[in-house]
Specification:
Elements lengths: L1 H19 L6 H7 L3 H6 L8 H22 L4 H11 L2 H11 L12 H4 L3 H19 L1 H21 L7 H10 L6 E9 L6 E8 L2 E8 L2 H15 L5
Antiparallel strand pairs: 1-2, 2-3
Helix pairs in contact: 2-8, 4-5, 4-8, 4-9, 6-8, 8-9, 10-11
């Protein structure tokens, strides 16, 4: 079994390296980066999932993006934080994963393979795992070479967009916090569609009052949409 696992992993790693134009010195890091937890569950004691690398990659991504914004944008801390959140959100990383066709390089358990390869949250996490592996293997500059072109492209698109990015959840939270005692909460009230293309329906409440309900292809996107609808219902200009 071990030989077949290693052969499959090596094939996937080689293909991934060609796609991202980076060769790993430590093949184990690459192996871990492409291993979904479902694959680990089917090969207990043989492989390690990419969850720890995802954790590290999230921090590396935040650092790289924060440095870019610090050097290029003259805004206050709050604005910088919102912009960084937009650049590194699940939807953004999912777009990068699709550009790389990252799902085709990942190792999944049999029950997860079909849906996992196209699930936004899984692919976004995998981007962070690969970034974390590159950081450990080659250092910060190599990590930047991998992710920074996409972040810059995303940032440029954001700046030229007529609407730009607005973090509606944060804006709504800031408004609600002005009234002491009011509590803001989001609830996923329904899920529709197949596992690989789900639509989530989210309601946003202030105290016990439902302010708005909206949908999205991920829970985070649905929450943003619900927050936007709530702001509009409150007469906030967006």
């Amino acid at each position: 079994m071990m030989e077949s696992v290693l052969n499959e992993a090596e094939r996937k790693i080689t293909l991934l390296e060609e796609r991202i134009d980076y060769r790993f010195d430590d093949r184990q890091l690459a192996f871990d980066a492409i291993t979904h937890s479902s694959y680990q569950n089917e090969h207990k004691g043989i492989v390690v999932s990419n969850e720890r690398l995802e954790f590290l990659g999230d921090s590396v991504l935040s650092l790289i993006t924060g440095e870019l914004l610090y050097k290029t944008v003259r805004e206050d801390e709050g604005s910088l934080t919102k912009t960084r959140a937009a650049l590194v959100c699940e939807e953004s990383l999912y777009e990068f994963a699709k550009q790389l066709d990252l799902g085709s390089f990942l190792l999944f358990g049999k029950g997860e393979a079909q849906d996992g390869r196209v699930r936004p949250s899984t692919l976004a996490d995998a981007v962070e795992a690969v970034l974390g592996a590159i950081y450990l293997d080659g250092g910060l500059n190599k990590a930047k070479a991998f992710i920074l072109p996409f972040i810059k492209e995303r940032f440029a698109a954001m700046k030229t967009s007529s609407a730009g990015f607005k973090d509606y959840k944060t804006l709504l939270q800031e408004i609600v916090q002005k009234n002491r005692g009011d509590k803001l909460a989001y609830e996923i009230v329904d899920e529709q569609g197949p596992a690989h293309d789900k639509i989530f329906l989210c309601s946003v409440k202030i105290n016990s009052n439902v302010m708005a309900t909206a949908s999205g292809h991920s829970k985070k996107a649905a929450e943003q949409s619900a927050a936007r609808e709530a702001l509009l219902s409150m007469g906030v200009e967006l």
